[in-house]
TrEMBL record:
Keywords: Membrane, Transmembrane, Transmembrane helix. This is ABC transporter permease. The keyword Ribonucleoprotein does not apply. Pfam families: ABC2_membrane_4 (PF12730). The chain crosses the membrane at residues 21-38, 58-77, 104-129, 149-169, 181-200, 225-247. The lineage of its organism: Bacteria, Bacillati, Bacillota, Bacilli, Bacillales.
Length: 253
């Protein structure tokens, strides 16, 4: 298992799509706070502090995560079917469950790294330009830590969903298209259906697709924290097991 993870990590570091996505996100992360800093400066509006910039970045980071993980799933996982890598791995003597698990963990780690770039760079740059902000040090540290951990959990849960798509479609183009459509429309679909069938609204409100919007909350209750933590973990495990089952049953040509 260790060798499989090590091999997947090497492939991720060399993957062009991962490098390209990282460079694009870093570029956006540098441009965005600079733009708002000088725009507010010219208009005479209050400057965004590091904490404010971090919170704003978190609210917009979900879209970046969804698009990035869909693209990475297509090129890092699905493309290996067409290149023959997946077939070679399946005949290497390792169980398919171990192969998929190693790939899922490394892919999820890649998505997590990409998900942290935008909020972290926004916070650092805005802090250098206009200070971090005035809040109780302990409260700020707890807020940032909780939000970062939430970003990690929900990025991993989204990654498990995208990995399932990648294993099902086995084609980078189909995986990217299907997963992007799914992630960008699932909110609208469940909301519209929920107007007529209340159970769909309840399911959606307790899913990672809805709860991800609450990870930046300043003072969530213990019940909310419990739900925000358990739901993404269950989603990751559930989709991971589903992906293992699909990969074990799939005929690899």
């Amino acid at each position: 298992m260790y060798n499989l993870i090590k091999s997947e990590w090497y492939k991720l570091r060399k993957d062009r799509s991962f490098r390209t996505l990282a460079m694009i996100i870093v570029a956006l992360s540098i441009f965005w706070p600079l733009y708002w800093h000088f725009d507010n400066l010219l208009d005479g509006d209050p400057l965004f502090t590091g904490l404010e910039s971090f919170q704003r970045a978190i609210s917009g980071n979900t879209f970046i995560i969804k698009v990035s993980l869909c693209i990475l799933a297509g090129f890092f996982i699905s493309s290996e079917y067409s290149t023959g890598v997946m077939k070679n791995m399946a005949t290497s003597g390792n169980s398919r469950m171990k192969i998929f698990t190693a790939k899922l963990f490394v892919y999820s780690w890649g998505v997590i790294l990409l998900s942290l770039l935008f909020p972290v760079f926004n916070m650092v740059i805005s802090t250098l330009l206009s200070g971090f902000g005035a809040m109780d040090d302990q409260a700020v540290a707890l807020l940032v830590l909780r939000t970062m951990l939430g970003t990690i959990l929900y990025s991993a849960s989204f990654a498990s969903v995208a990995a399932l798509f990648a294993i099902i479609f086995t084609n980078s183009g189909k995986t990217i298209s299907a997963s992007i459509i799914f992630f960008l429309t699932i909110d609208v679909i469940f909301t519209n259906i929920g107007e007529f069938i209340p159970v769909f609204e309840t399911v959606y409100e307790n899913s990672v697709f809805s709860l991800v919007e609450d990870i930046g909350g300043i003072s969530p209750s213990n019940t909310e924290l419990w739900r925000l933590t358990v739901v993404p973990i269950l989603t990751f495990v559930g989709c991971g097991l589903a992906g293992c089952w699909v990969y074990r049953k799939k005929e690899i040509k």
